[in-house]
Design goal:
34% helix; alpha+beta
C-alpha cells in the first residue's frame, strides 16, 4: 500500500502541527476564503465522484530555528497592513494555528533520508533567494487544464518564468531532488489534491474535526429555540 492514513481527532491546529512538523514533510491546508473555495471546487475534476477537495494550499516544512519556531517554505499571497508579499516566502508555522482560517490540515511524511531532506529544502531556499513570484496566471492555467485532462501532462498554458503557485512549488522541489510525487503531470499543473493522492509511499497524518452544522441548520436551531422560548412564556 502506497498510502497509510492516520486520522487524528481532538487536537488544535497548533497541537497537531507541532506534533508532526519535521523538515522535508509536506503540509496541506483547506479553508473557506473565496480563493480557497475556488480552488477546492475546481479540484473536483481530480475526484471520480466529483466532490470538492479538502485542500486549497500546500507548503514545505522547513527547520526549527534558534527562535524556537518551526519555519515553512511556501508560495503564497500574504497581505498585511502596508505590506504585500507575493511569491515564495518563509513563514512561521504559527501562521496555520488559526482554526477559523485553516479548518482542514494534513501532513505528508515520505520518510526522506537526511540527504533527500537537504535536497528538497535547498531547492525551496533557492527559489526564495531568487524572489520567485506567486503566479495567479499559472493557477488559472491549471484550472483550465483540470477541465481538459489531456492538457495536464503538457506545459501549463499560462506558464511564465520565475513563478510558481503553492503546490507547483512543492512538486518542483521534490522532483528536482529526484522524487516525482505525481508522475505524468506538468509541475505547473499540479494541485494540492494531486499531492494528497500521490502514489509515492508515505504516511498522511490527517486532522479530522466533526462536521460543523450548515448555516441553514444553525438558523433552524435558532428559530426553534426562539419558538420554544415563546411557548414557555406565561400566557
Amino acid at each position: 500500500m502506497h498510502q497509510k492514513i492516520i486520522r487524528i481527532t481532538g487536537l488544535t491546529n497548533r497541537e497537531f502541527l507541532e506534533r508532526h512538523a519535521q523538515p522535508g514533510r509536506i503540509g496541506l491546508s483547506g479553508g473557506g476564503a473565496p480563493i480557497d473555495k475556488l480552488i477546492r471546487r475546481a479540484e473536483r475534476h481530480v475526484n471520480e465522484s466529483k466532490e470538492w477537495s479538502r485542500w486549497s494550499h500546500a507548503f514545505l516544512f522547513g527547520e526549527q530555528r534558534s527562535d524556537e519556531h518551526h519555519w515553512i517554505i511556501e508560495s503564497d499571497l500574504h497581505l498585511a497592513r502596508k505590506h504585500v508579499r507575493l511569491g515564495v516566502q518563509e513563514n512561521r508555522l504559527a501562521k496555520y494555528f488559526d482554526e477559523a482560517a485553516y479548518s482542514s490540515l494534513a501532513v505528508l511524511d515520505f520518510g526522506l533520508s537526511a540527504r533527500d531532506v537537504r535536497a528538497v529544502l535547498r531547492e525551496g531556499l533557492e527559489l526564495l533567494a531568487n524572489r520567485t513570484r506567486y503566479s495567479l496566471r499559472e493557477l488559472f492555467g491549471t484550472l483550465i487544464a483540470l477541465r481538459r485532462p489531456e492538457l495536464r501532462g503538457r506545459d501549463n498554458l499560462l506558464a511564465r518564468e520565475h513563478s510558481f503557485y503553492c503546490s507547483a512549488l512543492v512538486q518542483y522541489c521534490f522532483r528536482r531532488a529526484g522524487i516525482d510525487l505525481v508522475p505524468g503531470l506538468d509541475v505547473k499543473n499540479t494541485t494540492p489534491e494531486d499531492l494528497a493522492r500521490t502514489s509515492a509511499p508515505h504516511v498522511m497524518y490527517l486532522l479530522e474535526r466533526p462536521d460543523e452544522p450548515s448555516r441553514l441548520r444553525k438558523l433552524a436551531r435558532r428559530v426553534k429555540r426562539r419558538v420554544q422560548a415563546q411557548l414557555r412564556k406565561p400566557q
